[in-house]
Design a protein that fits this description.
Blueprint lengths: L2 E9 L3 H13 L5 E5 L7 H4 L11 H4 L15 H14 L6 E3 L2 E8 L4 E8 L2 E12 L23 E3 L14 E5 L3 H11 L4 E6 L5 E4 L4 H9 L2 H25 L1 H16 L5 H4 L12 E4 L2 H7 L3 E5 L2 E4 L3 E4 L4 E3 L2 E4 L12 E4 L2 E2 L7 E2 L3 E2 L5 E3 L8 H21 L4 E4 L11 E2 L6 H6 L5 E2 L11 H10 L7 E4 L14
Parallel strand pairs: 1-2, 1-6, 2-3, 4-17, 6-21, 7-16, 8-9, 8-16, 9-12, 10-11
Antiparallel strand pairs: 4-5, 5-6, 13-14, 14-15, 17-18, 19-20, 22-25, 23-24
Helix pairs in contact: 1-4, 1-11, 5-10, 6-7, 7-8, 11-13
Length: 497
């Protein structure tokens, strides 16, 4: 069986993968690379999710690339506009020519003696093999095959349609029908106002509420700056302002949670103007940013509730019936369509089976290094974005650091790099990779890598601090070990700087 070799193999042609292609071309141009995409389209999750109203929950000046200005008038963009932007970026920089579609990576094996990854790929019913010196996983941490499905009692009795947002049927007809959306997260607050435009009525059924905040779709200051100066300069200034403001608000919310919770509830109360009770429907029991805030552009959810096109019910599900949902309170919600916005399924390393020198890697036995590499796994990085800010802010920092790392290895003639396995106490106590209490994170916590309490083993959620660290810190920091095809027994020995 023939093998195809590239210096860097990127997995995933979504927002992160296309950004990785651009950075490799411009900051490590001597490296050959290819992008393997399991699906047949560019766009990643933005192409995968097709449910009504799908949109960004971050502003596009930070979710977009720093090297390609966002020119759409909407700062909070819908899914189609984001996909168009990603695809146009791939074409503009020739990254699209490096993509192999329909290539699903199933396993990757590292050989220390060869300093090489051997990657097994499924293409239809066939298997092909790639080899590479560095493996860069840009497939995110959500399962593309399945969302989180909850099996409700009596589900088989329901006579209508049951839909999970991750598998939205293109032919679903909900016009003039009663719809119940189960959930209170970002997907639910997006679906409710979007479906309310055509449905007879939409009910958001939640077990517990989330913090919901309104934000304008357009950014007047951004429009003004773009009219006064070149696009790239305006984009940089708007991006910088938004980074500072989002970081500032996050710090305020975390440091003064009681005050912040009161302000968020007051904002929702003002939007609802007495049409819906704040308590219990918009009064979460957790502190702000223990879970992600739910963003509603131009207050569209609140508008649907005020106009009685939708309502919200906070209760527990007793069972499904043939005509709807019976609640623990005894109330029954009639429904023709039930949408189970019950969350996503998190996975490690894109569900790729990894082995190092014949030993299978268990993700939950590794510790994250600088938010991108992992103890004991050579020449591999996983691109994971922020939970409290735009994904791309962290993704782009990671990719630029990968380029720094590759260039350092070339200058010093190293073929391998691996974060040393932390000794007892060197990283502090293990913590989950993501410090949020959201259900989808808690369900996966035991399967994901861990982080420590101290740098470089801590996965910080702070772009401004990470910007300095990833751009200016030493690559040879005495934690990252560099070598040339040494036996695996020597991989974690300290190398001279």
């Amino acid at each position: 069986m023939s093998e195809t070799y590239v210096d860097v193999l990127v997995v995933g042609a979504g927002l992160s993968g296309i950004g990785a292609g651009y950075r490799l071309q411009t900051q490590a141009p001597h490296k050959t690379y290819a992008i393997l995409e399991a699906r047949n389209a560019i766009g990643g999750t933005w192409d995968l999710f097709r449910y009504p109203g799908v949109r960004s929950d971050s502003d596009m000046f930070t979710l977009g690339y720093p090297f390609r200005p966002w020119t759409n008038p909407k700062s909070i963009a819908d899914g189609d506009a984001i996909v168009d932007y990603i695809r146009a970026s791939a074409t503009a920089y020739g990254v699209d020519k490096k993509i192999k579609f329909g290539h699903r990576v199933v396993r990757a094996s590292w050989s220390s003696g060869k300093a090489l990854w051997t990657v097994d790929v499924r293409v239809g019913d066939e298997s092909v093999t790639y080899t590479c010196s560095f493996l860069y996983l840009c497939s995110g941490y959500y399962s593309y095959s399945d969302g989180h499905e909850v099996k409700f009692v009596g589900q088989g009795e329901f006579q209508g349609d049951i839909v999970h947002p991750q598998h939205w049927p293109a032919d679903l007809d909900y016009r003039d029908k009663n719809v119940v959306v189960i959930g209170s997260g970002a997907t639910a607050v997006t679906l409710v106002p979007a479906m309310a435009e055509q449905a007879a009525h939409v009910t958001m059924l939640q077990r517990s509420p989330s913090y919901v905040v309104s934000r304008p779709t357009a950014d007047p200051l951004a429009d003004k700056l773009r009219s006064l100066m070149p696009g790239h300069l305006a984009h940089r200034m708007i991006r910088g302002r938004n980074v500072v403001m989002s970081t500032l608000f996050y710090q305020i919310f975390r440091r003064w949670p009681k005050w912040s919770a009161e302000r968020l509830r007051k904002g929702a109360e003002d939007q609802l103007a007495g049409t819906v009770a704040i308590d219990p429907h918009f009064s979460p029991k957790y502190n702000p940013w223990d879970q992600r805030l739910c963003l509603v552009p131009d207050g569209d959810l609140f508008t649907a509730l005020r106009e009685k096109k939708a309502d919200v019910v906070t209760d527990r599900i007793e069972r499904f019936t043939s005509t709807g949902i019976l609640l623990a309170s005894g109330k029954e919600l009639p429904a023709d369509v039930i949408v189970t916005a019950t969350g996503l399924k998190m996975v490690a390393f894109g569900e790729i089976e990894l082995t190092v020198d014949g030993k299978r890697v268990e993700a939950n036995e590794t510790t994250v290094y600088k938010g991108m590499m992992f103890s004991g796994i050579p020449n591999l990085a996983w691109c994971v974005g922020y939970t409290n800010n735009s994904w791309t802010l962290r993704a782009d920092l990671t990719t630029q650091y990968v380029c720094r790392l590759l260039n350092h290895m070339d200058r010093h003639h190293f073929s391998q790099c691996v974060p040393a396995v932390p000794t007892a106490g060197s990283a502090g106590s293990d913590r989950p990779l993501l410090d949020l209490t959201s259900g989808y994170i808690q369900r996966a916590a035991e399967r994901l890598p861990h982080q420590g309490q101290r740098a470089p083993w801590r996965y910080r959620q702070n772009y401004l601090l990470d910007l300095a660290t990833m751009r200016l810190s030493r690559v040879d920091d005495n934690v990252m070990r560099f070598s040339n095809g040494v036996p695996d027994s020597q991989l974690n020995r300290k190398q001279p700087a």
